[in-house]
Structure to design on (760 residues):
C-alpha cells in the first residue's frame, strides 16, 4: 500500500521550466509546497562539460533514463501503427529542460493572442487554415505583459527593448508589443559574424536586432556572466550564466522554507474523490509508493507527460481520464514547425565559440508583420542566425557536391570549409489541427506497465508549409546578401515529436474545446491546475519558454489571490 | 527503451519493485568511464584500421584517422555506450572484407591504398560506409579524452581552436586565426 505523507497546500508535479517558476510565488505567499520531481539536482562539476560527445552525441544532459523509458510513439494517421519516436526531448532533473535549453526568451506578439479574429478581420474568414482548431487566446498580450516582466526580472533575461510603452527604439525589435520597461540586462555581445549579418539585413532594408536570452550578459543577482565557450546547446552552464530554474527561482523558493523538494519521485497518478476534486498524488521513490495529499495539484510536466498523466488518472468522476469529461485532453496538440537553413561562406566566419542565443534576429517575416494578402497563408517565421559550432558536427558538414565524402580531397575540403558554415533555425507560427492529437498508446508501455503517450501527427499543413517556404526564401536572401555561396533549405520538421511541443491541455474560456480556463485551472476539477506549453493554443514564431513561464507565474499568483475559493 | 509487454502478466507491485530505477548520476558516470575491455577482435581491428586509413588518410595536411586514434574511440564506444550496435558494425566489417576478397582477391588489410580507395568508392553512401564514416569523424574530432584526436590532429585539421575557459570578443571576430588552446576539457593528461 502507498505510504501516506503529511498533507501540503500545493503539490507541484515537475520542477522544470514551468513548475520551477510557479513554486516561487506560492512559497513566498506562505503556502506549503511539495515539489515532486522525477530527476534530481545536477552538479555543474560532474554533469556540465565543454564536450560535444557528452552533450550532443550522447545527450547526457538533455535526455534521461526515465524520459527514454516513456518515449512517446508517433504515427502519421490513425490507420498506421505508431512507432517509438526514438528520443524524447524531455529532461528529468531539478530545472528540467531549462538546464540545457538555448535560453532564447521571447515574448509573443499581441497578434499571437488574437490570431483568429485579427486574421478574419484583415484577410477574411477563409484565411483561417482549413482543419485548424485555432481560437483566440482567452487573454491578451496586455494581460500577460506584467508576468513577462516578472519572469524577465526574476529569472534574468538580457536583451534590448524595441518598444517601451509605445516608444520605438530601432536597436531593439520594433515589431514587439509594448513593454513596461527595458530588460534587466543589456543584450549579449555580438560576434563578428552576427554583426556582419546585422549589416547585411540593414542593406536589405530590414531591422535586425540582438535577441533576448535568459543568459547573463553581466553578473546578475550574484550569478556569473556568460563566458561564450561554445558548449551551451544541450549542455548545462558550468559557471551558472544560463538562468535555468535550478539556479534562479527554485533556490529562491527553497530559501523561504516553504518548498520541500521530493527528488527522484515519479508521479504515477493524480487521485480524485467522488466529488471530482483532486486529493493528492501517488508517486514512486526508491521502489516504494507514496501518497502525497494536497489541497491543490499543479501538473507541470513536459507537454507529452501532462496529457499522459491526466489520461492515466482515471476515476469514477473521470472515467476517461482526469479533467477529460469533454474529451479535450490530448487535443489541439502540435509540434512546432521549424527548419534549419544553412549556408557556406567563402571566408572564415569563426562561429566556433559563443552560444545559440548569441545571435541576430529579423522579424519582418514573422507573425503579421507583413501583408499576407494573396499569399495563401497566415503567420510566418522569425529568422535567427547564431554562433556555436562543434568540431564533430563541423567535420560532418555537407560537402555541397564540391568534394567526395572521404580521402585527401575531403580532408582539404573540411580543412578549408568547416569554419565557414552558418546555421539557422526558423520558428514558424504553428497552429493546432483537428487531426493532430495525443492519446495513450494501446500497446507500448513503460516498465511500470503504464501506456506511453502516442502522437498522431495528422496530414499535410499547407499553411505552415507555405509560411516556412516563404521564410526560407527570405533567409536565403539574407545569407546571399551577406556573401554566402551555397544555401540549403531542407524540408520542415513535421508536426510529430518536438522540443517545442504545445497543447493537449489547451487554455480557453469554452469548456467544450479547452481543458483549462483562462487562469490555467481545470474546467472540471476545480483544484487542479496545469502549467507548461501544453496550455498554449498557438506557438507564435518564438521559442516557448518565456511565455509558458509567464503563464505559470500568473496561474500561481491567481491561486494565491483566490486561495480560499480554489482550495475549498 | 520501449517495453512491449502484457501488463496482465505482472502485478503492479512487482513491476514497481523490479523496474530498473537506475539513478541518472549512475548512468552518466558509467557512460563516461572509458571502457576497459575491447569490442573488436585483432582481426576486426585490422580491417577497421585498413578502412579508416583511407577514409581520412595521412597526407600533406597532416595525420589521418589512424594516427589520430579514431579506431580506439570506435572500439571503446562499441564496448561501452554503443554496445547495442556492435553486432551490426562487426557484420559490416566482415562484409567489407568478404567483398574485398571476392572482388579484389584479398582481405581489405592486404590491399594497396589504391585498391582500398576503390572499395570505399564502391560503397559510398551504403549503410555501413555512412556509419563507419560517422564514427570515424566522431573519433577524430572529439575531445581526446575519448581516445581519438591524438595531439589534437582532428581539431588542427579543421582549424577548430579548442574549448577554452573564457572566450574574448576578439576570439569571435570574422576572419581571424584564433590561437589553438590545446587542452582537453578533462585536463592536461589527455590529448598527447
Amino acid at each position: 500500500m502507498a505510504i501516506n505523507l503529511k498533507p501540503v497546500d500545493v503539490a507541484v508535479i515537475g520542477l522544470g521550466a514551468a513548475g520551477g517558476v510557479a513554486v516561487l510565488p506560492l512559497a513566498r505567499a506562505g503556502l506549503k509546497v511539495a515539489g515532486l520531481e522525477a530527476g534530481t539536482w545536477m552538479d555543474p562539476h560532474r554533469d556540465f562539460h565543454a564536450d560535444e560527445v557528452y552533450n550532443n552525441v550522447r545527450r547526457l544532459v538533455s535526455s534521461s533514463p526515465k524520459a527514454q523509458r516513456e518515449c512517446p510513439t508517433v504515427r502519421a494517421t490513425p490507420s498506421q501503427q505508431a512507432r517509438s519516436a526514438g528520443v524524447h526531448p524531455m529532461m528529468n532533473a531539478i530545472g528540467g529542460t531549462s538546464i540545457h535549453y538555448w535560453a532564447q526568451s521571447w515574448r509573443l506578439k499581441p497578434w499571437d493572442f488574437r490570431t483568429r479574429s485579427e486574421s478574419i478581420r484583415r484577410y477574411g474568414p477563409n484565411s483561417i487554415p482549413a482543419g485548424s482548431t485555432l481560437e483566440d487566446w482567452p487573454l491578451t498580450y496586455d494581460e500577460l505583459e506584467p508576468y513577462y516582466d516578472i519572469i524577465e526580472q526574476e529569472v534574468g533575461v538580457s536583451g534590448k527593448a524595441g518598444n517601451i510603452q509605445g516608444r520605438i527604439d530601432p536597436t531593439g525589435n520594433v515589431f514587439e508589443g509594448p513593454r513596461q520597461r527595458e530588460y534587466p540586462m543589456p543584450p549579449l555581445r555580438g560576434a563578428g559574424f552576427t554583426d556582419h549579418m546585422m549589416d547585411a539585413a540593414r542593406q536589405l532594408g530590414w531591422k535586425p536586432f540582438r535577441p533576448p536570452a535568459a543568459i547573463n550578459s553581466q553578473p546578475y543577482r550574484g550569478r556569473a556572466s556568460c563566458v561564450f565557450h561554445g558548449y551551451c546547446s544541450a549542455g548545462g552552464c558550468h559557471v551558472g550564466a544560463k538562468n535555468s530554474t535550478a539556479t534562479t527561482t527554485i533556490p529562491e523558493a527553497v530559501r523561504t522554507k516553504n518548498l520541500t523538494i521530493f527528488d527522484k519521485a515519479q508521479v504515477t497518478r493524480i487521485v480524485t474523490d467522488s466529488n471530482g476534486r483532486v486529493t493528492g498524488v501517488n508517486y514512486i521513490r526508491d521502489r516504494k509508493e507514496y501518497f502525497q495529499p494536497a489541497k491543490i495539484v499543479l501538473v507541470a510536466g513536459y507537454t507529452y507527460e501532462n496529457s499522459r498523466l491526466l489520461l492515466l488518472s482515471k476515476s469514477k468522476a473521470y472515467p476517461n481520464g482526469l479533467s477529460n469529461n469533454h474529451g479535450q485532453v490530448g487535443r489541439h496538440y502540435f509540434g512546432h514547425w521549424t527548419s534549419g537553413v544553412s549556408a557556406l561562406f567563402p571566408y572564415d566566419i569563426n562561429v566556433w565559440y559563443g552560444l545559440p542565443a548569441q545571435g541576430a534576429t529579423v522579424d519582418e517575416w514573422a507573425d503579421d508583420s507583413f501583408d499576407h494578402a494573396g499569399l495563401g497563408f497566415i503567420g510566418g517565421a522569425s529568422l535567427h542566425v547564431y554562433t556555436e559550432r562543434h568540431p564533430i558536427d563541423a567535420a560532418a558538414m555537407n560537402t555541397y557536391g564540391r568534394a567526395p565524402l572521404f580521402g585527401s580531397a575531403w580532408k582539404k575540403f573540411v580543412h578549408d570549409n568547416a569554419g565557414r558554415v552558418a546555421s539557422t533555425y526558423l520558428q514558424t507560427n504553428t497552429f493546432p489541427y483537428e487531426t493532430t492529437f495525443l492519446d495513450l498508446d494501446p500497446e507500448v508501455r513503460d516498465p511500470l506497465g503504464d501506456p506511453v503517450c502516442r502522437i498522431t501527427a495528422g496530414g499535410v499543413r499547407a499553411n505552415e508549409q507555405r509560411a516556412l517556404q516563404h521564410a526560407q526564401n527570405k533567409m536565403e536572401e539574407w545569407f546571399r546578401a551577406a556573401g554566402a555561396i551555397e544555401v540549403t533549405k531542407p524540408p520542415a520538421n513535421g508536426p510529430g515529436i518536438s522540443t517545442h511541443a504545445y497543447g493537449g491541455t489547451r487554455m480557453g474560456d469554452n469548456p467544450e474545446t479547452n481543458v483549462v480556463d483562462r487562469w490555467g485551472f481545470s474546467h472540471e476539477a476545480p483544484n487542479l491546475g496545469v502549467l507548461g506549453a501544453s496550455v498554449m493554443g498557438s506557438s507564435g514564431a518564438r521559442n516557448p519558454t518565456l511565455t509558458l513561464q509567464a503563464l505559470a507565474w500568473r496561474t500561481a499568483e491567481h491561486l494565491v489571490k483566490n486561495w480560499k475559493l480554489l482550495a475549498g | 527503451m520501449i517495453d512491449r509487454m502484457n501488463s496482465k502478466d505482472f502485478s503492479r507491485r512487482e513491476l514497481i519493485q523490479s523496474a530498473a530505477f537506475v539513478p541518472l548520476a549512475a548512468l552518466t558516470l558509467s557512460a563516461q568511464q572509458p571502457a576497459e575491455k575491447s569490442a573488436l577482435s585483432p582481426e576486426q581491428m585490422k580491417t577497421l584500421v585498413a578502412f579508416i586509413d583511407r577514409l581520412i588518410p595521412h597526407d600533406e595536411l597532416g595525420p589521418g584517422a589512424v594516427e589520430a586514434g579514431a579506431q580506439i574511440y570506435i572500439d571503446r564506444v562499441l564496448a561501452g555506450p554503443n554496445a547495442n550496435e556492435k553486432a551490426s558494425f562487426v557484420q559490416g566489417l566482415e562484409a567489407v572484407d568478404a567483398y574485398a576478397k571476392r572482388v579484389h582477391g584479398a582481405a581489405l588489410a592486404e590491399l594497396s591504398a589504391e585498391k582500398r580507395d576503390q572499395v570505399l568508392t564502391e560503397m559510398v553512401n551504403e549503410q555501413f560506409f555512412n556509419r563507419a564514416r560517422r564514427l570515424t569523424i566522431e573519433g577524430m574530432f572529439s575531445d581526446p579524452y575519448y581516445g581519438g584526436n591524438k595531439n589534437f590532429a582532428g581539431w588542427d585539421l579543421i582549424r577548430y581552436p579548442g574549448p577554452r575557459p573564457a572566450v574574448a570578443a576578439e576570439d569571435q571576430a570574422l576572419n581571424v586565426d584564433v590561437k589553438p588552446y590545446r587542452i582537453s576539457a578533462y585536463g592536461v593528461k589527455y590529448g598527447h
User: Anything to note?
Assistant: The CA atoms of residues 270 and 281 of chain A lie 4 Å apart. The radius of gyration of chain A is 23 Å. Chain A is about 25% helix and 20% strand. Chain A touches chain B through 72 residues (CB under 8 Å).
